[in-house]
Design goal:
This protein is of the alpha/beta class. The protein is 55% helix and 11% strand. The protein has 14 helices and 9 strands.
């Protein structure tokens, strides 16, 4: 494929000719040295607003949307800068590479000029020449000890190439950004720094408690490994401070790393959010967006169920969430201090029935870990 591209001012106004498959780096002029293959597009306001209206059900304001897009632009800019630095280091350390690059650029520009002037040219000659130059450059790079992909563009998210979109669909990384922007009052990203599998320890458990903990850990790992292929839900219960929230956040951490969308709420926050939007007449649009997210995100964690003020509204909302997610085969994790009997009594038979039939039930028991940690911290401070 040969195409002529006038890039706009976001990149450069230089004429460039790209030959080859859209994702390959075959050639670029000396200043514009990579081809996005359709992955990266300069920002265009009208295009973005159109997308916003048509494809976003999540209630981002334009300012929030712009902030996310700006973050993507920054990411791309950082990666472009890094690539430029890598290219400069190759120019300095690999004799002949820069010359080959310049030869590539001038061959293409000459060809482009002649094409525009109306000459009838055999494109395959140029194509072969550029392929040969590209092969020589690659060879030089490898012979000098560089990785073959050293001069390829880096991306924070390979799937969308830091554009936020895969085709017309928003990428999983974009969905997660929206979730974080709209709901992450609890700071799930921050929580995962201290609650993750690397920080998990069995030292607080003994005997039967240890057996339960190890079983729960095994189930959690299975949950993560089969996420997306197996539909599973977890109901983690037990007394205060036995590691239920910790375990649920460990799972969230792993799934976020794998690029899944995770929505995390303490029960208190969740029902506060829902009641605020239900009883606020102006929030119809927001309400719909919130339910779309609650029902649709890949993993929903409701932490500490039972700590909210339980009303008939809460019981019915909880059932709707569990039921809708079950119909859509979307995974849910619930943690609670309540026993199963208390769950039935506090909410409804319907909730109890859904949980007992569709959730893996895990019990954690033992001493209050938070209390032990607090005492240990106090003691170590006293020693100082
Ligand atoms: Zn992405």
């Amino acid at each position: 494929m040969i195409s002529l591209n006038w890039k706009n001012s976001f990149w450069t106004t230089k004429l460039s000719i790209c030959i080859g498959e859209s994702d390959q780096i075959i050639h670029m002029s000396s200043t514009l040295y990579y081809w996005s293959g359709g992955g990266i597009r300069p920002p265009r306001n009208t295009y973005r607003v159109k997308f916003f209206k048509e494809n976003f059900r999540m209630a981002l304001t334009n300012a929030q949307y712009d902030a996310i897009m700006h973050e993507y632009e920054n990411r791309r800019s950082i990666h472009r800068q890094e690539l430029e630095e890598r290219l400069q280091s190759v120019y300095e350390s690999v004799p002949g590479y820069k010359e080959l690059d310049e030869e590539t650029a001038s061959a293409s520009v000459d060809f482009g000029k002649r094409l525009i002037a109306g000459e009838k040219l055999d494109r395959s000659i140029l194509k072969n020449k550029l392929l040969e130059l590209s092969r020589q450059k690659q060879l030089l790079l490898i012979e000098s000890g560089y990785a073959p992909d050293f001069l390829e563009m880096g991306y924070t998210c390979q799937d969308c190439r830091d554009t936020g979109y895969i085709g017309n669909e928003k990428c999983h990384c974009f969905r997660q950004k929206i979730i974080e922007t709209l709901y992450d009052k609890s700071g799930l990203r921050i929580l995962t720094r201290s609650c993750n599998f690397r920080k998990m320890t069995a030292k607080y458990y003994q005997g039967e408690d240890l057996t339960r903990f190890l079983k729960a850990k095994e189930v959690a790992e299975d949950f993560i490994n089969n996420f997306g292929s197996d539909y599973q839900n977890l109901f983690i219960y037990g007394t205060v401070g036995t590691g239920k929230s910790f375990l649920s956040i460990c799972i969230a951490d792993e799934l976020l790393r794998k690029g899944h969308s995770v929505l995390y709420f303490s029960s208190l926050e969740l029902f506060k959010l829902l009641s605020r939007n239900t009883f606020d007449n102006n929030g119809k649009q927001d309400r719909k967006a919130i339910y779309d997210d609650l029902y649709g995100c890949e993993l929903l964690i409701i932490d500490d169920l039972g700590t909210e003020l339980t009303t008939s509204f809460v019981a019915s909302e909880l059932f709707s969430i569990i039921n809708e997610r079950d119909m859509r085969k979307r995974a849910t994790i619930i943690t609670t201090n309540l026993s199963l009997e208390q769950l039935q009594h506090t909410y409804s038979d319907r909730v109890f029935s859904r949980v007992t039939s569709n959730y893996r039930i895990l019990k954690l028991s033992g001493q209050d870990i938070r209390k032990i940690q607090k005492i240990a911290k106090k003691e170590s401070e006293d020693v100082k």
